[in-house]
Model the fold of this input.
Amino acid sequence: MKIVDHKQTWEGFFTYPSDDDYSDQDLEVTLKMELIFNENSFTGTSRDSES
Done:
């Protein structure tokens, strides 16, 4: 992978199983990460709708 822009914003979601015994539907959580890449590492912040 070649890093073109060293500052990036990533947006998306992750899912996890509901703890409700009556539902087999996964819960979806939106997230946004602001990342700064430096050679073989990165730093940044992550926010999600449950935090």
Q: What stands out?
A: Residues 3 and 40 are 10 Å apart (CA to CA). DSSP finds no helices and three strands in the chain.
